Amino acid sequence: MIFSVAVEVRPLEGIANPEGLTIERALPALGFTGVRGVRVGKLLRFELDAVDEHHARREVEQMCEHLLANPVIERADIHLEAVGGTQ
Amino acid sequence: MTDAATVGVLCFPGSNCEHDVVAALEGLGAAARIVWHSDSDLSGFGGLVVPGGFAHGDYLRPGAIARFSPAMGALSSFAERGGPVLGICNGFQVLTEAGLLPGALMRNAGMRFVCTTVECEVVSSSSVLTAAVPTGTVLRLPVNHYEGNYTVNAEGLAELERNGQVVLRYRDNPNGSTGNIAGVANRAGNVVGLMPHPERASSALLGSADGLRLLESFLAAVANGAGASRAPRVAS
User: Fold this and answer.
1) How far A53 CA lies from chain B's nearest CA (Å)?
2) In this predicted model, what pLDDT tens digit does every residue of B58-74 receive, in sequence order?
3) Which chain A residues in 18-57 lie under 8 Å from chain B, judged by CB atoms?
4) What three-state secondary structure class fits A84?
5) Does A13 contact chain B (CB < 8 Å)?
6) What is the pLDDT of residue B5?
7) How far apart are the first and last CA of chain A?
8) Is the pLDDT confidence value at B230 over 50?
């Protein structure tokens, strides 16, 4: 099956996120005064061919562990959606 | 130091300080040679340096892709045998991503690229980079980075302090690093990473020659044959 995968990589709780702070300080200048807790991470999207959702998830978890996220400073949330059968 | 073993200086696509490292080491009388990252045979080197730059474009995270290069597997084995390994700037990032050094290097706290000369204090002599430099020595060294904010959690920091693994501290923190840390070593002290560039502080003409004291210490470890000669030999 083909899965559409989105991996959301974000800074761990308690890890400083200077990008987020900078954006948070800029928004009030545009009149957006109610914003709190901006955190900047990254989003990776790709397609994955796997036998089922269980295997797809395990494979993506391993990708996160070995490359996509650095566990010292980041966590990864995986979103999977089946989009079709194997070609 | 005429009989010093040769130092291998790794070069990845995007490395840009490899020639500076070779020049500084040669200036101290050592032999040094640049090694392309796809070379998985690092036998014959007495020490290894991962230089500064932007290995593999710093894509994903600085050092994240570089650690999969064939030379890094050989470097890890060399480090496990106790061989002296030094990571400078991007090389420090590569060594943390490879798990050879604790912690991680994040975007500078001020969201600015820093390019200046800073004062660093040697706070531990239990590493190949600082063994020959007395604790308390203050060195003037250039920094040149956007992602040098050394990050480690509270327990990790306590452990580093307890084991004397913090080897260099900024006197005036330029990037938000936890504990003002400019350089750390692994538990054994044979693998060291630092954000400042000792190879650029290699002549009074360049503003400082203080980096040579660190490189001399590293070369002394290389000359002592830390690593290679002490490697357990398997009888065949």
Assistant:
1) 26
2) 999 999 999 999 999 99
3) 18-19, 22
4) strand
5) no
6) 84
7) 8
8) no
Say whether B97 and A18 touch across the interface (CB within 8 A).
no
Structural domain boundaries enclosing B146? 7-230
- Phi and psi at B217, nearest 5°, equal -60, -45
Does residue B189 register a pLDDT over 90?
yes
**What CATH number did the domain enclosing B24 receive?**
3.40.50.880
Element (H, E) at B124: none
The bridge status of strand A42-49 relative to strand A2-11 is: antiparallel
The number of domains in chain B is: 1
Which CATH architecture does the domain made up of A2-84 adopt? 2-Layer Sandwich (3.30)
Q: What is the mean pLDDT of chain A?
A: 94
Q: Are strands B85-88 and B47-50 parallel, antiparallel or unpaired?
A: parallel
Query: Hey, are the CB atoms on A18 and B111 less than 8 Å from each other?
Result: yes
DSSP-derived 3-state class of residue B85: strand
Residue B1 is assigned to a structural domain of this protein: no
What tokens appear for B153 in the block?
């959690």
Residues of B in contact with A67 (CB under 8 A): 60, 64
Among residues 97-136 of chain B, which lie with CB inside 8 Å of chain A? 97, 103-104, 106-111
The pLDDT of B175-203, averaged and rounded, is 97
CA B193 to chain centre: 3
Tell me, what's the pLDDT at B187? Answer: 97
